Amino acid sequence: SLATGRKKKMPPGPKGIPILGHLHMLGKHPHQDLHRIAKHHGPIMYMQFGFVPNIVVSSPQAAELFLKTHDLVFASRPPHQAAKYLSWEQRNLIFGAYGPYWRNMRKLCTLELLSTLKISSFRSMRREELGLFVESFKESSKLHVAVDLSAKVSSLTAEMSCRMVFGKKYDDKDLDDRGFKTVIQEMMKLVAAPNLGDYFPFLGVLDLQGLKRKTKALAKVFDDFFEKVMDDHVRAGDRSDQAKDIVDTMMSIMQSGESEFQFDRRHIKAIMLDLLAASMDTAAASVEWILSELLRNPTVMKKLQKELEQVVGLKRLVEESDLDQLEYLDMVVKESLRLHPVAPLLIPHYSREDIKVNGYDIPKESRILVNNYAIGRDPNVWTDPETFIPERFTGSNIDVRGQHFQLLPFGSGRRGCPGIQLGLIQVRLIVSQLVHCFDWQLPNDISLEELDMNEEFGIVVSRANHLMLIPTFRLQN
Ligand code: HEM
Prior knowledge:
Layout: H1 2-5, H2 30-41, E1 44-49, E2 52-57, H3 60-69, H4 81-86, H5 100-113, H6 116-120, H7 123-143, E3 147-148, H8 149-166, H9 172-175, H10 180-192, H11 196-199, H12 201-204, H13 211-236, H14 246-256, H15 265-296, H16 298-311, H17 327-339, E4 349-350, E5 355-357, E6 360-362, E7 367-370, H18 372-375, H19 420-437, E8 438-441, E9 455-456, E10 462-463, E11 468-473
Parallel strand pairs: 2-7
Antiparallel strand pairs: 1-2, 3-11, 4-7, 5-6, 8-11, 9-10
The structure holds protoporphyrin IX containing FE.
């Protein structure tokens, strides 16, 4: 009949096969595979992974339609088995479905936990950690031996995150015998692993890959640890004399009973894990990609060191208050985030209702993958897209805050990253410190062309192989 007979016009896409749909087309680097496929099928593409419909978005114009024009329709997150067990029934911010509950949690995080005021209250902590970080390279500089820069940077961001959220460093073994970072990394892997149960609901109960079992065990480790952290805070009592850490802030909100929604220990635990997971890997991976590009582009490195010499001099360390004057640093960071967006597919979005976008029917409950990796390489908006050229941002107003859809390292709109300000401070501060204090050199006569740039896929994409470099101290004394 006329009423029901209107044929749906789905976005184009490659031909799928029964049952798997297009799952077999994804290899070890799904963002790169999807980039390649989109070159044939266009910036709004339909692909089915198992029984789950996915819309893959691969151009700035298309991203604007999904993240701005129709933001409200696409502001949810898909159900996700690993997230369910790891986030106290998806009670967290990152994986929370759109609704009043998520809106309240998001407001709390933005206003109370990640506000400018809160972030600046941790300034002296960051300074202290960075001082120790620089010191730790001096010995290797004297001996002229390589350091594992990737590991060092990831310890630094882990320590900063711990002190900000918990108020102190915990010993590695407080969490688990395996140590803090290993456990967080295992969690990120589990969350990113394509879980057959998510694509084929009837397989979920069978748990063929054992993911559910592993995830539940991991969730228990975090639960025990976070309970202990909260007990420690209760025991320490009100310490209004010193900067309140994030757990302090959340516990006083809980005790005041002033939150607009139910807010108990489960919510505090969920947010603790959110903040740790979201802040540790992202900043560290961004820094290691930036350093990799600087090594491959010695003239850019020299120019950045020159800027630092002019603004800071060679007699003291970079301070947070210097950052705003470091314009070239800003361009280097942007250019690296363009080529190496550490969350290349953002975090999947989920459509809350049927909607027509650009003439295509997008069914309710589709997963939306915005391919940041493809967008940063779109030849229609970037000239010479594969080349690292920070100067392309000279005199340009393009920034990374989600208003310019050709550059979306932090996403955009309702689900955009709420930690952007903190993330940018951390990344700029660590990079400037490394480049200001040291010259860096590849060991064993490896040439710059040989520096491998392979990616390890996950929600956060880091270098596949750690960056091993020899530092040479360059400040006066
Ligand atoms: C260089 C550092 C960082 C980068 C590149 C980054 C990038 C992103 C991206 C791409 C998203 C997903 C946006 C979307 O799905 O549309 C996101 C979400 C998120 N980020 Fe960040 N991020 C960084 C640092 C941080 C920090 C330091 C925090 C907090 C301490 C943070 C907290 C979050 C949270 C809570 C979400 C989930 C928001 C939601 O679902 O409503 N991020 N981030």
